[in-house]
Design brief:
By secondary structure, the chain is an alpha/beta fold. Helix content is 47%, strand content 16%. The chain contains eight helices and seven strands, in the order βαβαβαβαβααβααβ. The longest helix is centred in the middle third of the chain and has 29 residues. The protein is globular and about 45 Å long. Bound molecules: NADP nicotinamide-adenine-dinucleotide phosphate. The site of NADP nicotinamide-adenine-dinucleotide phosphate has 27 residues, from α1. GO terms for molecular function: oxidoreductase activity. This is SDR family NAD(P)-dependent oxidoreductase.
Length: 250
């Protein structure tokens, strides 16, 4: 990607206040994009947007989104349609992890994981499609996971949700690509963010040791892949799930 390749484009990054979403918001702003980022706390999102503006000199806005309520995603996308009808890029990043063995995970936890990761992402994707279809242009990246394709004990609810996102990527790409909108996904392996908080350091060190590239991923590793997929160098790529996992097979 050239240094200011995304100048003149507007990108929405959900969950842009920390972790992979934050790194992606920075990466896209560095490439010149106007970045709209969301957080559950709108004020925190606005502060993150001000940081982007100060650092890269590109316009940015912080918006509220809580995907435990699909109404919140619908409201967000109506607001984006009204205020940014030129939306070019969606990175549907916001998500939560679900941990628990099949025999003991409470049904409510499963429901939350599906509500946030699947229904929330679906609503944001639908809203973006409604904005992009009339313009016949756009690039969308969804966040799935290594566990969707390989399975990990204790992560069934999360794997089911992220598997849904991988499937959604393929169908959305089939439907939207003829309308000029590319849809891809990234499937991160183990990336050092707050999402890994439930795991003891020894387990993470063991995962790093098993990873062919010899380390865990960073949010910036994933942000680079996302920036590639939304940029012009990926202009003939759609319906693809790109692993960003250091070569790890669980
Ligand atoms: N880290 C990994 O190893 C890994 C691996 C594979 C896939 N992923 C995926 O990558 C994406 C980002 O993960 P991460 O590691 O950066 O996680 P993270 O550091 O925990 O950040 C999660 C982001 O999602 C937002 N979020 C959480 N619950 C939300 C809700 N109910 N409504 C709206 N936003 C919500 C958070 O917003 P707030 O700041 O407002 O809480 C935050 O910005 C997720 O989809 C995750 O499943 C991560």
């Amino acid at each position: 990607m050239t240094s200011r390749e995304l100048e003149g484009r507007t990108a929405l990054v959900t969950g842009g206040t920390r972790g992979i979403g934050r790194a992606t918001a920075h990466r896209l702003a560095r490439a010149g994009a106007t970045v709209l980022l969301t957080g559950r706390d709108e004020q925190q999102a606005q502060q993150a947007a001000r940081d982007l503006e100060a650092r890269y000199g590109t316009p940015a806005s912080g918006l509220g989104l809580d995907m435990t309520d699909t109404g919140s995603a619908d409201a967000l996308m109506e607001r984006v349609a009204e205020e940014h009808p030129d939306l070019d890029i969606l990175v549907a990043n916001a998500g939560i992890m679900g941990v628990g063995l099949l025999g003991s995970i409470p049904a409510q936890d499963v429901r939350s994981v599906v509500e946030v990761n699947v229904l929330g992402t679906f609503a944001v994707l639908q809203g973006a499609a409604r904005i992009m279809i009339p313009r016949r242009r756009g690039a969308i990246v969804l966040l799935t996971s290594l566990v969707a394709a390989h399975g990990v004990p204790g992560m069934a609810s999360y794997a089911a949700a992220k598997g849904a996102i991988a499937a959604l990527t393929l169908s959305a790409a089939e439907e939207l690509s003829p309308q000029g909108i590319r849809v891809n996904a990234v499937a991160p392996g183990t990336i050092e963010t707050e999402m890994l908080a439930p795991y003891p350091r020894a387990i993470l060190d063991e995962t790093a040791a098993r990873t062919p590239l010899g380390r865990l991923g960073t949010p910036e590793d994933v942000a680079g892949a996302v920036a590639f997929l939304v940029g012009d160098e990926a202009s003939f790529i759609t319906g693809h799930v790109l692993a960003v996992d250091g070569g790890l097979l669980p």
